[in-house]
Amino acid sequence: MSKKSRSKLWFLVHSWLALPIWFFVLIVCVTGTLAVVSQEIVWLANPDMRASQPSDDAPLLSYDQVIAAIKQAQPQTQVQSIIRPDESHFALEVGVTYPDGRPDTVYVNPYSGVIQGSAPTFNFQAFTRALHGWWLVPFTNGFSWGWYLVSFLGLPLLASLITGLVVYKRFWKGFLRPTLRIRHGARIFWGDFHRLCGIWSIWFIAVISITGTWFLIQALLFDNQISISSEPVVPVVARESVPLSVDGTAPPTLNLDRAIEIAQQRIPGLEASFISLPGNAYSHLQIGGRGWYPLMFQTATLNPYNGDVAASRLLSDRTALEFVTESMRPLHTGDFGGLWIKLIWFLFGLLLSMMVLSGLLIWTKRTALATANAFKRSQKPVRETRAPQPLQPSIQRETSEGSL
Amino acid sequence: MNPSNTASSSSRLRLLWYKWRFHLNVLLLLIPLGFMPKYFSEAALFRGDAGLGEREIGEVQVGPWNLRLAELRNEAPRQQGPAGYMKHFNAALCQRCIGEVKATYLRIGKPRSLRAAGVIFFGSPYRMSAQLPVPQKTPSDVELWITLEGWDGSMHQASIPLSQASPATVDWLNNQGPRP
Lengths: 404, 180
Known about the structure:
The complex is a heterodimer of chains A (404) and B (180). Chain A is 51% helix and 10% strand. In chain A, 30% of the residues are buried. Chain A contains 14 helices and eight strands. In chain A, helix 2 (22-36) runs antiparallel to helix 5, helix 2 packs antiparallel against helix 13 and helix 10 packs across helix 12. An eight-stranded antiparallel beta sheet of chain A has the order 4-3-2-1-5-6-7-8. Chain A is elongated, with a radius of gyration of 28 Å. Chain B folds into two domains: 3-46; 55-174, Immunoglobulin-like, CATH 2.60.40. Helix content of chain B is 26%, strand content 32%. Chain B has helices at 3-20, 30-46, 162-165, 167-174, and strands at residues 55-62, 65-71, 78-79, 85-93, 101-108, 119-120, 128-133, 143-150, 155-161. In chain B, strand 8 (143-150) and strand 9 (155-161) form a beta hairpin. Chains A and B meet through helix 2, helix 5 and helix 13 of A and helix 1, helix 2, strand 3 and strand 5 of B.
């Protein structure tokens, strides 16, 4: 095969990867881009979610103080979990249950303990993630087929990146001499745009396609009951270690600040950015947060009565394989390093969405023309007698644009 | 109809196909649109808009205490991978019992001891959940046993027929073919 026809073949493969499903890919890119900053969008829209500091030197409340403040404001409400979001401008997210049986997430000011409001009934964050992640197809047994549908896109995306770089000869020159011709017509502009965005997004497309493919592998492993986890199953709190009570009421449990202290003594460097309270009399208290490696969480599982550390899951407990696989999700979502990382992911998400669109525009302006010409050639002998006119004007138009 | 007419209509179809074939995937958007009502009804179910669950079973007196029981979904048990078929029940303890009850368990058939009381409920006493395994060979006339353990060491039990707890599960069991 000649060099020219080989590169033509690569070009065809590159065009065909996304073309038949361009709209699906576009919506997945756009919803993913929105999902990256969904928490920030809700923050902008909903003042209840903001953590305004009453004065410049107001200290953060401890977890026990937060629980005490909630107890005082709503004595009947039960707290299940507290999450301290990574970015300090977000209020605490507290999982609660009301006496009427409704579970809720409330936003609590981390400085004053004031319950600022409930999460809105329409959860924008969860909705964009569900739309992006599994196309809203419900999970009934194992992973939903929507998850497979979306995560499968990782493969054509990776193939697009590779074929794109093969087709774009000496692409590295594009870094030195960026070309974006604005005054030479739409075809030239979108072509330049597609190539320029493409080379600057190499790293991002690689990250998104590889992590996206991991989501496919993850579902396949799970649905075939293959586990690569080295995490031991923690048994429930033994009947013997739940203290007996003489007066028939629940024995006192460790306060949270003390529990965090114990956990931090055992696990130096453990950060407490979320706390999950015991789910029943025989279950543990869980404390967790990021370690030095921002892509993973470390957790400690404590007996809530005596503070014994029943289990811990540290960075050092992970196998090399888990280090890679557990890093996949944060790398995909960009939620591991605060607002700036999210904004970078958002920006490149937008570029990737634009690449789908520009790819389509290039195709309609160039490949469509070639296809229509080929179609015309094959039809010509017959068509001369039948002459279906409707095709002609559109070809005329596309020819004039294509030749620009 | 003369032959030239059919030919031109078929080539018009072909033309339409060539023009629109790569836009047909817009129709994939019908999938999330179709699942949207389901998505929002599930969100409402987990938000507790429908109370404890889709189908309230009612109050069950267990010794000195009582609790409200509900099926999260008014449907047959769902297969959960290697764990087999599971049925999701929710429960709420009476206001007075909250301080006294240590644990709540659910089991198909009468437990022999507290240690075999069945699956334990998790969550706030206002809304606890348990996933009850339901083997496909379960006879459909069994009783569902509720065990409450008190902080004072006492244990109280009560049972209701499975047909009352979950008619959908009984229907499902009746359709599981011959049982030993």
